[in-house]
Amino acid sequence: MVNKSSLSLYEEMLEEAYNEGIIVKEVELQSNASGLYKDNKIAINKTIASQYEKNCVLAEELGHYYTTVGNIINLKNSYNRKQELQARKVAYNKLVPLAKLAEKYFSGFANNLSEMAEELEVTADFLTEALEFYESKYGKYVDTGKYLIVFSPFHVYKKENVY
């Protein structure tokens, strides 16, 4: 067993994929897709230059493994769009869980959304989409017990005297 603290986020997800019996390869895709999942195989477009974008793509493709049934390439179909959203929800919860969002907010290194995205090792667009997802799920804010997370404008309040 590998010490998880020594693995990058991408390597942790590769290990998760391996443990699930999924083969992950970085290949040149014929389409403009960033990643594809099919039959326990994930292809990540090797033209992606940013490690943070690779993190986001791999998390979403793992989301497809956990949630998607059949061929959903045609996103004009509403059922396919719903499955695409389910995979993204898995990615948001994996890479930007509420507790980690609050923790990074108070780390002192994330003074704006761009820095927060960097701390979370995701793209700024992915973080913005995650916050929009959470707002659609919870409303303007969510009370986690220890924190009050406001999604727009983004802010986290630490609740005092919470044990």
What do these coordinates show?
The strands form two sheets. The protein has a three-stranded mixed β-sheet with strand order 1-3-2, covered by helices on one side. A three-stranded antiparallel β-sheet has the order 4-5-6. α1 (9-19) packs parallel to α2 (51-67) and α5 packs across α6 (124-138). The chain is globular. The longest helix is centred in the middle third of the chain and has 18 residues, at 78-95. The model has no long low-confidence stretch (mean pLDDT 89). It has helices at 9-19, 51-67, 78-95, 98-105, 113-120, 124-138, and strands spanning 23-27, 35-38, 41-45, 141-143, 147-151, 154-158. It is built from six helices and six strands. The protein is α+β, with helices and mostly antiparallel strands. It starts with 8 loop residues before the first helix and ends in a 5-residue tail after the last strand.
